[in-house]
Amino acid sequence: MRNILFVAVSCMILVLCSCLPIDKQKDLDILAKYHQQEQTAHLTKNVALFVEIMSDTVTHVQKGAVKKLTKQQMQERFSQYFSMVEFIKWEDTAPPVYYIADDGSMASVLVQKRVELKVKSDSTGAIEKTDFAWTELWRKERGQWRMHTNISTEKTIP
Prior knowledge:
The chain has 158 residues and is α+β, with helices and mostly antiparallel strands. The chain has four helices and six strands. Strand 4 and strand 5 form a beta hairpin.
């Protein structure tokens, strides 16, 4: 009897949750805010600001490899990267494209960005220019959007 009651209550909760309205505009606003936060984090070299929007594990696809990194590994990776460079430009070259699943549980953001930087160890002071295109995959975790995958391509500009 208890099992039947448990199943019935569980089914009712699932039905009620699936009927809750999804506020896609609110979700778009949050994702756009996080997109701006990524830029601010890079330009100010604020690693904590950058990794706070990530899942506990992030899948990173780049240069023919798929890697799963913990949030701590991402923090270490970006701390090292930020310490080695001076950003001149980290700007969108096209408006980001946002997609949100009908149930509001997942989203993707397509980004095109120009990054210009100087590598601190390069005594010539040369400016590296790179065009990036990437896809961020997001999901709601405990009611909060978190980036769980980044798939990236890049093209060096002469």
